[in-house]
Write a structure and sequence with these properties.
Layout (H helix, E strand, L loop, with lengths): L1 H5 L4 H22 L1 H5 L4 H13 L5 H14 L13
Length: 87
Amino acid sequence: MSFKSMDSGNKDVTQWLTYWVVFSFFSIVENILGLLVALIPFYTWIKIGMIVWMYHPSTMGAKTVYEQGLRPLLMPYIDVSEPKKTE
């Protein structure tokens, strides 16, 4: 449902929804690859920089990550047609 809402066109809602979807994706990947992440030097500083880049309105980093990375991966699995009403 969140993915369909991001394509709705409401700019304010779309920015924050995109941020939280991308942030959640990175959190899941970080938890799965926890051992490998621990080996990356300065990972905490890199993560802080990435979070600031993703949420800052002038960079719109979360939108970039979503449109170029996540959206192409997810769109084949999301039904973008209108839900059918059952009576």
